[in-house]
Design goal:
By secondary structure, this protein is of the alpha/beta class. The protein has an eight-stranded parallel β-barrel with strand order 1-2-3-4-5-6-7-8, surrounded by seven helices. Helix 2 links the parallel strand 1 and strand 2. The longest helix has 18 residues. The protein starts with 11 loop residues before the first helix and ends with a helix. The mean pLDDT is about 95. The structure holds 3-methyl-2-oxobutanoic acid (KIV). 3-methyl-2-oxobutanoic acid binds next to strand 6.
Length: about 280
């Protein structure tokens, strides 16, 4: 009888070895139940993204998210995940200030939440931080293109790399991050041909979210994928189911059954023997 091979834990070297052999799968995850489901589904990389601020905490941007919030969510996902590579996302102002701040805060993800890598936004200007983290044994994923922590510089959540100088900058940033020791790079919302060029020139995995099909792997924000965020739907996302509708219908059914008296039914109640009840009465 054929046996199924035992599932392997995904590590940083595993992610790097997958480049060119198979497409990598990456999702965000912010809590225990979604971590469990994503790990069961065979997702390679789980990012505890600072997008938690918008999808789960109700902020208008990722800027208010703090290290303590990120650690709280990363710990919950850690308890769920056995196989996927777990990455903690460095929130705004946890690494931009100094190399020492960057290394200290990255270290919190490893010590307190047992993450296996961190992600940070930015290119050439972040290379000293990336290098220092890698020197301390902490793998780093870079993030270029529409980096949401720079939304005020961009004037909103705007596609990047659509003209010569902006595309050239992203290409140069990708090379610089690779040279600084990043193990992979995430490209967000840039033209597919620019992403293809970066992927062809890179020696490390390039993951895309809104970067077309020619990269080494795809990331989606899980709340977009399952239809659990309805403030806006980014063009790059795809809704595979409508959780808002499913949950809305379930809550509506609960409301009408309580109002009509149909819930709770006998199967939801406990009994007491007549003689015991008689003593109370
Ligand atoms: O926080 C996050 O989920 C991210 C993705 C948008 C790339 O950084």
């Amino acid at each position: 009888m054929a046996t199924t091979p035992e599932r392997k834990k995904i590590t940083v070297p595993e992610v790097q070895a997958a480049r060119g052999k198979r497409r990598l799968l990456m999702l965000t995850s912010y809590d225990y139940p979604m971590g469990l489901l994503a790990d069961r589904a065979g997702i390679d990389i789980l990012l505890v993204g600072d997008s938690v601020g918008m999808t789960t905490l109700g902020y208008e941007s990722t800027l208010p998210v703090t290290m303590d919030m990120m650690i709280h969510h990363a710990k919950a996902v850690r308890r769920a995940v056995k196989y996927a590579l777990l990455i903690g996302d460095m929130p705004f102002m946890s690494y931009q200030t100094t190399v020492a701040d960057a290394v200290f805060n990255a270290g919190r993800f490893f010590k307190e939440a047992e993450c296996e890598a961190v992600k940070l936004e930015g290119g050439v200007e972040m290379c000293d931080k990336v290098h220092a983290m890698v020197e301390c044994g902490m793998p780093v994923m870079g993030h270029l293109g529409l980096t949401p922590q720079s939304m005020h510089r961009f004037g909103g959540f705007k596609t990047q790399g659509r003209d010569f100088s902006s595309a050239q900058q992203i290409i140069a940033d990708a090379k610089a991050l690779e040279e600084a020791g990043a193990f992979a790079i995430l490209l967000e919302a840039i033209p597919d041909r620019v992403a293809k060029l970066i992927t062809e020139r890179a020696n490390i995995p390039i993951i895309g979210i809104g970067a077309g099909p020619s990269v080494d792997g795809q990331l989606l924000i899980v709340h977009d994928l399952v239809g659990f965020f309805d403030k806006f739907q980014p063009r790059f996302s795809k809704k595979y189911c409508d959780l808002n509708k499913v949950i809305g219908e379930a809550l509506g059914a609960f409301k009408s059954e309580v109002e009509s008296g149909a819930f709770p039914g006998p199967e939801h109640c406990w009994t007491i023997k007549d003689e015991e009840f008689a003593k109370i009465k």
